[in-house]
Design a protein that fits this description.
Elements lengths: L7 E6 L6 H17 L6 E6 L5 H5 L7 E2 L17 H6 L4 E4 L2 H6 L4 H14 L2 E6 L3 H5 L3 H13 L10 E5 L13 H16 L10 E4 L4 H8 L6 E4 L6 H11 L2
Parallel strand pairs: 1-2, 1-8, 3-4, 4-5, 5-6, 6-7, 7-8
Helix pairs in contact: 1-10, 7-8, 9-10
Bound molecules: 1,3-dihydroxyacetonephosphate.
Length: 255
């Protein structure tokens, strides 16, 4: 029987950092400590490095590797500069971030493009880490939940019932990303509970979908976040660039 509770995941999103030599050292430090400490291994750990390093780290087969983006184009063809889900899968990449607010805000990833990316990734057999989250203006206008639910609806519209097992949700309030401001554990839990309730209307497997929190997660706040009933892990930016900090966040979610 499949587990009825979600698995915990801590994912390091390195964004456009660091340079390759430093990246290799950081990756080895994280992978070694994770492999040497059995107590950490109740929590799944994955790294999203910059695109040029994907196949280098993926072929080491130590930790699952996450692409930070994927093309709206499937397969192969005359599409200069694009990286398709199929090629990612071929190079042993296992997961992909879709809908990160930096891509939505800076690179024109609207609902239509995101839905194409979701379809391509699922068809290629990748696991999706689908990011949702509201801006400060939306939160202050009392729209946080409706924004997040709309983003989830856009995911649901292109997801077949059998595909939910390949989906992880990351709630990342935009105002908490890279700002040092974290949502309080109460606010984060409230949103995660709302996400869970909504997912229950979409799929019978909702209780198994990992719901990660992202936005200034650090060792200092990870334990409190990990104690929340519907927070099943973290999507970590800045703190994932320091091996000791990242390991201590993993520790919090491995309890
Ligand atoms: P920070 O942890 O740096 O706030 O970044 C969060 C994030 O965007 C992870 O995807």
């Amino acid at each position: 029987m499949t587990a009825l509770t979600p698995q915990n995941w801590v994912i390091g999103n390195w964004k456009l950092n660091p340079y390759f030599n430093e990246a290799k050292q950081l990756f080895s430090a994280i992978a070694q400590q994770y492999q040497n400490q059995a107590e950490l291994q109740t929590c799944h750990v994955a790294i999203a490095p910059p695109a040029p390093y994907l196949s280098f780290f993926a072929t080491q087969q130590t930790l699952p590797i996450v692409a930070q983006d994927v093309s709206t184009i499937r397969g192969q063809g005359a599409y200069t500069g694009e990286v398709s889900a199929d090629l990612l899968k071929e190079t042993a990449v296992e997961l992909v971030l879709i809908g990160h607010s930096e891509r939505r805000e800076l690179f024109g990833d609207d609902a239509e493009k995101l839905q194409q990316k979701i379809k391509n990734a699922l068809q290629a057999g990748l696991t999706i880490v689908y990011c949702v989250g509201e801006s400060l203006v939306q939160r202050e206008a009392g729209q946080a939940q409706s924004v997040v639910i709309r983003q989830l609806q856009e995911l649901a519209d292109v997801t077949h019932d059998t595909e939910w097992k390949n989906i992880i949700i990351a709630y990342e309030p935009i105002w908490a990303i890279g700002t040092g401001k974290t949502a309080s554990p109460q606010d984060a839990q409230q949103m995660h509970a709302a996400i869970r309730v909504y997912l229950q209307t979409l799929t019978t497997t909702a209780n198994r979908i990992p719901l990660l929190y992202g936005g200034s997660v650090k060792p200092e706040n990870a334990v409190e976040l990990a104690a929340c009933a519907d927070i099943n892990g973290a999507l970590v930016g800045g703190a994932s660039l320091d091996a000791a900090s990242f390991i201590s966040i993993i520790q919090a979610f491995a309890q």
